[in-house]
Design brief:
The complex is a heterodimer of chains A (107) and B (178). Chain A has 107 residues and is mainly alpha-helical. Chain A contains 3 helices and 2 strands, in the order ααββα. In chain A, a hairpin with a 2-residue loop joins β1 and β2. Chain B folds into 2 domains: 90 residues, Up-down Bundle (Four Helix Bundle (Hemerythrin (Met), subunit A)), CATH 1.20.120.1200; 44 residues. Chain B is built from 7 helices and no strands. Chain B is globular, with a radius of gyration of 21 Å. The chains are: A mainly alpha (107), B mainly alpha (178). The interface between A and B is large, with 78 and 99 residues.
Chain lengths: 107, 178
């Protein structure tokens, strides 16, 4: 058995960095949304890993990390719903999902 | 036992092998998401990544959360994203983008972050955690915490979901003015 959260946290860090790189380097709005999902998912992985290895009642493991992960899951679902609605609205306006064209709020 | 010591001492269990395979596939799928120009291929990479993470949740004895991951992420979220890709009939992203220098800088900063976070994780020898409690990861345990200690965050998140739903309907219905 993998006895400590280290490898899981390292995997979470790698996935988070990959997601952040996607957000920075890509222009398609859908790809950016998918990269944000990767980042939220890696945060969940870190939460679950730590919750498994903390000492709790009757053995290792506390449920708190899983509950917080559940809340993150709900917020991620809300985020993707609103994000895709924005993508659809933007596509109707510009016939493209290139975020470089969305400069309404830029100087 | 730290990561390096575990590998060197030959204390490699079947869980270790499963973890390594799932981790490698998850990282490869994540790279497909951020590097492939076609959004459909990216969505397939995303669902692969989510399923691998669900497998890792099973290794962590978080069975309920693994089921949630498959149903909500690999199911609902990826289907929604694929639906929008098909609805908009998106073509692969045009070449170009922010340019070589910002992308290289972002990759460099990412590698630096992994190095900064990863070194203490590899060196830190955590006390060996015992076997999980018998009810760890079950619906009963997570549900009890959700409806007692975390009741108010649960209420807040349900309100956030409701407002997101209303906002999504309004955004997709109305035509934005330029």
């Amino acid at each position: 058995m993998v006895g400590d959260p280290g490898p899981y946290l390292l995997l979470a860090a790698v996935l988070f960095v990959i997601g952040a790189f996607g957000v920075i380097s890509r222009r398609g709005a859908i790809t950016i949304l998918m990269s944000i999902e990767l980042m939220l998912n890696s945060a969940n992985l870190a939460l679950i890993a730590v919750s498994r290895f903390l000492p709790g009642d009757g053995g290792a493991g506390v449920p708190d990390g899983q509950v917080i992960g559940f809340l993150v899951l709900a917020i991620a679902a809300a985020e993707v719903a609103v994000g895709l609605a924005i993508v659809i609205a933007m596509f109707r306006l510009r016939e493209s999902v290139d975020v470089d064209l969305a400069r309404l709020l830029r100087w | 036992m730290s990561l390096v010591a575990g590998v060197v001492l030959g204390a490699i269990s079947i869980q270790w092998v499963a973890f390594l395979v799932l981790a490698v596939v998850a990282i490869a799928a994540a790279l497909v998401v951020v590097l492939h120009r076609s959004p459909v291929v990216g969505a397939m990479g995303l669902v692969t990544n989510f399923l691998c993470i669900a497998g890792i949740y099973v290794l962590l004895n978080a069975y309920f959360f693994a089921a949630l991951q498959v149903i909500i992420y690999a199911g609902a979220v990826v289907v929604l994203i694929t639906f929008v890709i098909m609805l908009l009939n998106l073509q692969p992203e045009a070449k170009g983008g922010p340019g070589v220098v910002p992308v290289a800088l972002a990759a460099l900063l990412g590698l630096a972050l992994i190095a900064v976070v990863g070194r203490p994780l590899l060196e830190y020898a955590a006390p060996e955690a015992g076997p999980p409690a018998p009810d760890f990861g079950t619906v009963a345990q997570v549900g009890e915490a959700l409806f007692t200690v975390y009741f108010y965050p649960f209420l807040a998140v349900s309100l956030a979901l409701l407002s997101a739903m209303v906002g999504a309907v309004l955004l997709a219905k109305r035509r934005l003015e330029d």
